[in-house]
Amino acid sequence: MAEEKSAAEQLQEKLLIKTENGGLALDDAELQKAQEFCEGYKAFLNAAKTEHEAVAYTVEKLKAGGYVEFEPGKRYNPGDKVYYNNRGKALVFATIGTEGFEQGVRIVAAHIDSPRLDLKPRPLYEEAQLAYLKTHYYGGLKKYQWGAIPLALHGVVVKKDGTTVQVKIGEDPEDPIFCVTDLLPHLGREQMKRPLAEGLRGEELNILVGCHPFRDDKASEKVKLNIANILFEKYGITEYDFLSAELEAVPAFDARDLGLDRGMIGSYGQDDRVCAYTAIEAGLAATAPVHTTVTVLADKEEIGSNGNTGLKCSYLRYFIADLAAPYGVEARTVLSHSQCLSADVNAAYDPNFADVYERKNSCYINYGVVITKYTGAGGKSGTSEASAHYMAKMRRLLDDAGVLWQTGELGKVDAGGGGTVAMYIAELNVDVVDVGVPVLSMHAPFEVVSKVDVYMTYRAFCEFLKEQK
Length: 469
Prior knowledge:
Its cofactor is Zn(2+). By secondary structure, the chain is of the alpha/beta class.
């Protein structure tokens, strides 16, 4: 016979917030679903290490699922599936709902760019008979973390005649890999006096790519020439073609289960491809929605969402305007009645660095999807704060569906801060809140998430897209 709860226990249960580790809160069947779901997620991480690759991967899945390229001016019917590919680096796809556009749409917006090392326009050079590629780091990374790790080279080269060459070197086990060298500790006394942010400086992030010279006494810079010749023989590109290339150095290791219990995943690029993948899968699962569903995979979030593939650009607004125009509905009407989840990660509490977290308002690994009411920095600058009404809606939605969830902020007040695409969605007069996965070692070449949290994020997105109110 169960012991009767005391008055205090009953009050605690009624009045106070209770959070629980997913390993205890979920049954075996649900935990198994999380494991199975994350097998597909790991495959996505390995296949889509750049924004170009994430778009190509998703377009292939969309076509297999019956999606067609969006045609502005065309009138679509409930259940129709369309996508808009923005320059191969950002993507929007939609499933038409039964409700009219004047009732708004349901948007899930993630980003598919991650911190990395981009090649400079003239990267190839030789020094001390070693060949290097010069880089310009992309996003808010810790430069010292990128030394002495295996790197792969991904991207596209567009030749003067318009021919596009796809480059991927370092992922196949038979491929060579690359690295940024670091100084040995025996000679590193002065280097180790530097501030940590300058342990490796930006101009020291040069990628080692070769050492063999071209065999010709009359040539200068023979090692550089040999590397240029290898690239020409393999890809048909010359040094001039670097000027019209987008080449990115990314970690050359695959996503792996992490921990003896296999409860976590370690990989590059989980900010924000963990939310991109869950958004893609939830969007594909919304086959007969009431409200039209719109899934956004944006570029350039890590550097402020600038440019014509970032969400400061108007392509999302234009897409919705073109979608609604055949029905005689203005874009502002659609957007003003729309709701959005800004699908982005938050910083999981890390006990190794507890001094920058406020424990009561942090999110935790394995406690479910995290709702972040606001991000920003000191004084809530640079953020969109979700309204109390919208937060109440999310509480109700997730509780009714049995989704394990938590809330969190991005560290202590004045400890730092960051932002998401939520503020740019909010500028369209859309209700929006950040929803995503807690991450350890965010922006490092190797980030960590919980499988339970990944699966609960997918479930949260599914519930949001099929919700009718």
